[in-house]
What does this fold into?
Amino acid sequence: MKKILVSGLLAVTGAILLPGIAGASALSGTENIQITQVNNQPGAVFAQGVFNAGGTDYKKTNRTDLFVFSDGAFTVHHVITSSPPPTFNPTTCMVTATEAGTFSLNGGVGAFKGVSGSGTFSASFMAAYPRKPNGACDLERNAQPTASVSQISASGTVSFS
It folds into this structure.
């Protein structure tokens, strides 16, 4: 089963609503981030708090993502601390899963130069799988879902130095 955090669709770009963040001195506080990914495409990122922005989440590795906004970008490292077994409904061929963990961010460029922070996240994943010619759900290792969606909510402290 693929890991949830860090992939997505809905390529959304947005402007930083707090102009001049890079030049601000020791700006810090709580940041809330929502990510939505559809059908294994880059995720749409919405951030609110110390900065307000919309952007795109690009998965780099199983533990690293790159959040890209119109005025800059930063790297997010995440560790899954809880991942209960997924549930499967053989009548609908639907798989659901949840995860939770911690994240840290750094490596900012542009408006996000000097950003750092950390916090926690929770994620949910749903995928519908196709059926084989005999009517059974196709959950083979290489089977691709016919549709999938991931929702990630994260919250933590962010600061700009």
